[in-house]
What does this fold into?
Amino acid sequence: MELIELFKNKKDLIYKKGELIVEQNSICRYLFFIFEGSTRTYNIDKNGVDSTHWFAFKNQPITLFHSFYNQTPSFYGLEAMEDCVLRCVTKAEMDTHITQSSENFNLYNKLVEQAVKRLTDRNLCLQNLTAKERYLKLLEEEPLVFQKANLGHIASYLGITQQSLSRIRAEK
It folds into this structure.
């Protein structure tokens, strides 16, 4: 069974570009699947600085893992980067689903493993690569980001200013 099957009979949730799907500091009660559109996970710090931490696109699941798993307020928020059609399942539904078969459990574990790998890769990139190397890696591995996200979100994801991103793009 594929993860998408879990969302098959769920109602479509429609979000407009810029609309908050999950507000920062609230509990993320759902695992979403993106049927149309794209999202970003972000944080606004105490100084009002908006930082993008994750991008997700059509045919991908998205949630705020720590909040969803623990049902506690999230340090992050989730925003629609373009008009979105999502479907969702609750933590209880997911828990029931993964206990129904080893296949479902393995599928969920694979989802979590992919998220951990992506977060680990991102942290290693931020710590060990130059801004230009991070840009080129993102361009190579996730070109869709450059079609869907604005430059401010891309710059913050790369850990640089928008001006630095513009310089790097001009050098290329």
About this structure: The two ends are 43 Å apart (CA to CA).
